[in-house]
Amino acid sequence: MEYRRLGGSGFSVPALSFGTATFGGGNDFFRAWGASDVAEATRLVDLCLDAGLTMFDTADAYSTGLAEQILGQAIAGRRDRLLISTKATFRVGPGPNDLGSSRHHLVAACDASLKRLGTDHIDLWYMHGFDLQTPIEETVRALDDIVRAGKVRYVGCSNFSGWHLMKSLATADRYGWSRYVAHQVYYSLLAREYEWELMPLGLDQQVGAVIWSPLSGGRLSGKIGRNRVLPAGTRTAQIGAMGPEYPQEQHYAIVDVLEDLARETGRTVPQVALNWVLRRPTVASVVVGARNEAQLRENLGAVEFTLTPEQVARLDEASGRPPVYPYWHQRRTSSDRNPPPTRP
């Protein structure tokens, strides 16, 4: 397994992380993702560690803490062999302070996650979303205090806009507080908006990208294509796909190229789609999930090959979308001053 430095930190993470939203199945939404119990979760952790995948991604909102609890039991006795990333911010209870990024909530949420995970520290802790009601200074200072207390090693954010992230970084820099080293983002061949502003920001500010839903909620799994409807019983059929709908013809065009490249490389459609994401600028790790061993083994194969520049160009062409304002204007008027982003 390839390891990559996370943003501007000295922290190295595996190119693939394992997402645990499939653990527990605590409600209808998460049961559509999966419902791995402790025994199955333990087996999946075993396979990951054998392959060198040592980072496990979870959140307190996944099945209202059940995913963290199951992960904690699955890794018992081998905490020193792996890395844990988890998240806070989304609602986890009925009270007015059971959500958000206030000091009150974050201190309690961190302690609760540590207890469920059965550990004394979290390696990477994300703000799962941006809290407009809490001053950024309050959030960043609280995170710095938690880091200084030794409960968290590094902090990151998820689903932030460009100004959310930049103001948070500027606040941390102003006061010498812990800054976000990672941004967990939605990015795939079918959803390339991350490239418009957040990718250049990540390059400039040395914030590594950790990718969630790199197959766009199953739409790039190979199960959907021309003359192939979504199979009944899949997660996407039950709860819909992540993100907005994209033009159907372009979706099919992307899948056509993926299928061609799968034949050329002797790989599967999901492996090719994951490999494309792995080669993009700023990407430190891609979160993959699995309901069972077969899915996990297939996802692990995404790091075993490298697409050629010509193959990447074919995927780039099929998946390209016109940017929204002001990015289309910037590209037209300042292309000589704003070249496409490249990996640092």
Percentage beta strand: 5-15%
Rg over C-alpha atoms, rounded to the nearest angstrom: 20 Å
Roughly what is the average pLDDT, rounded to an integer? 93
Give the overall form.
Answer: globular
In the predicted model, the low-confidence regions spanning at least 5 consecutive residues are: none
The ordered H/E elements are EEEHHEHEHEHEHEHEHHHEHHH
CATH architecture tag: Alpha-Beta Barrel
Major sheet, described briefly?
8 strands, parallel, barrel
Number of helical stretches of at least 4 residues: 13
| The first-level CATH class name | Alpha Beta
CATH-defined superfamily = NADP-dependent oxidoreductase domain
Kindly report the spatial arrangement of strands forming the biggest sheet: 3-4-5-6-7-8-9-10
Q: How would you classify the helix and strand content by structural class?
A: alpha/beta
Per DSSP E runs of 2 or more residues, the count of β-strands stands at 10
Distance between the termini: 20 Å
Helix content: 25-40%
Give the structure's gist in a few sentences.
By secondary structure, the protein is α/β, with parallel strands linked by helices. The chain has helices spanning 28-33, 38-50, 66-74, 103-117, 136-148, 162-175, 198-205, 235-239, 248-265, 269-278, 293-300, 309-319, 327-333, and strands at residues 3-5, 12-14, 16-19, 55-57, 83-88, 122-127, 152-158, 180-186, 208-212, 283-288. It has a single domain (3-333), classed as TIM Barrel (Alpha-Beta Barrel), CATH 3.20.20.100.
Account of the protein in words:
The chain is 40% helix and 15% strand. The protein has 344 residues and is an alpha/beta fold. It has one domain: NADP-dependent oxidoreductase domain (TIM Barrel, Alpha-Beta Barrel). It has an 8-stranded parallel barrel, surrounded by 6 helices. It has a two-stranded antiparallel ribbon with strand order 1-2. Helix 9 (248-265) crosses helix 10. The model has no long low-confidence stretch (mean pLDDT 93).
